[in-house]
Design a protein that fits this description.
The chain is mainly beta and about 80 residues long. The protein contains one helix and five strands. Strands 1, 2, 3, 4 and 5 form a five-stranded antiparallel beta sheet that branches. The chain is globular, with a radius of gyration of 13 Å.
């Protein structure tokens, strides 16, 4: 800490992911040393609930000290 709100657009947004209601989540390194971000979204374009859980791979851009989503890796968890 301390935590401060970013002045720029978040790395996970409707513009980037194409899904409404992207919310807070957790960034972690998986067993292959790849950054993953797990978070919740709205159920669909009209309903917030029940929330869905999603995951997307992230790349760390070291020279800019920031993360960006890895295109084509967004998926919902537990949805059949």
């Amino acid at each position: 800490g301390p935590w401060t709100k970013s002045g720029s657009n978040p790395i996970i947004s409707r513009k980037i992911i194409g899904v409404n209601g992207t919310g807070h989540g957790d960034l972690f390194l998986d067993k292959n040393n790849q950054y993953q971000y797990v978070f919740h979204t709205h159920y669909d374009g009209l309903s917030e609930a029940p929330r869905k859980v999603a995951i997307v791979e992230m790349n760390f851009i070291e020279n800019e000290s920031r993360f960006e989503t890895k295109k084509g890796t967004f998926t919902f968890l537990g949805v059949k």
